[in-house]
Every structure is written in structure tokens, then in C-alpha cells.
Request: fold
Amino acid sequence: MEDTDVVRAVQFIGAELPREAWPHWNQGWPLESEAALLDAIFSSRAAYGTPKTGVRAVVDRWRTHRSVAAGEHLDSLSALAAFTDRGDELATVLGNRQRVPGNYSTKAEGVARAAKALVEAGCQSSADVEDTESLSSAVVSVGPSRRWCSCPGS
Reply:
């Protein structure tokens, strides 16, 4: 297949199936670190949902809780980190009590713990997001350790 055939195929698909018409399409969360973190954790091993269900419903409930209007940004990881010791309260705010893989805790608790780890690593908002070992380590540090794993030898 030649490059021009590929271009024509992509153009045809774009015209016939525009992304805006997809019920599950999401443009991402530019300048919204809180929404991005909620999306990353709540979409893990879950159906993504439509604009009124699933991950986007969780983000909408958080936006309502924070009184941040559409068009404004959810961009303070400290707001989520404030729930580190109140994971059950955050689950209520988000209207979602899904558990993380392994059933260790709720995804809401995982979001709060990840936000706290990022804040402690110097990442307060989307402006601070970088592909660094320290931020990667911060996020990974909140995952379940071997003591919660039912892996052989644990």
C-alpha cells in the first residue's frame, strides 16, 4: 500500500467516523492534573464509559465538588492529596467505590495516595509534570507491595 492510499484511508475514516461522534472519545485533560490522575486510576481495569458514566462521571463529580466550572482547570494535586487519610470520604464524593486490582483499597484512596506522593515529589500541577525518575517512582510507590499480593512466595 502506498502512502497516498494510507492518507486517503485515514481521511475517509475521519470523515465517516469523526472522533467527536464517538461516545467514548475523550480529548484528554490538558492543564488538568487532577482529572488526568482520576482518569488514569479509575480507567484501570474498567469500562471507560460515556460522558455521563464511568471515568468521566467521576471527573464530573470531582469538578462539582471542587466548584470548578467547565472551561476552568482542575489543576491542583494538593486538592486530591488532602483526602489521603479520608479515602472513604473521597469515594463518596466521587460516587465510586471500585477497588484497585487485588482488592487492596478503593481507587479513590489510590488517587489520594498518588496525588500526595506526587506533591511530595514536587509536582503540584500539570506545569510540574515531567518524565523523571522521581515522579515515576512517586506514582509507583503507592502501588500494593508484595505483602498484599497473593503471588507465590509472598
About this structure: The helical segments are 3-16, 33-42, 54-65, 77-81, 87-94, 107-120, 133-140.
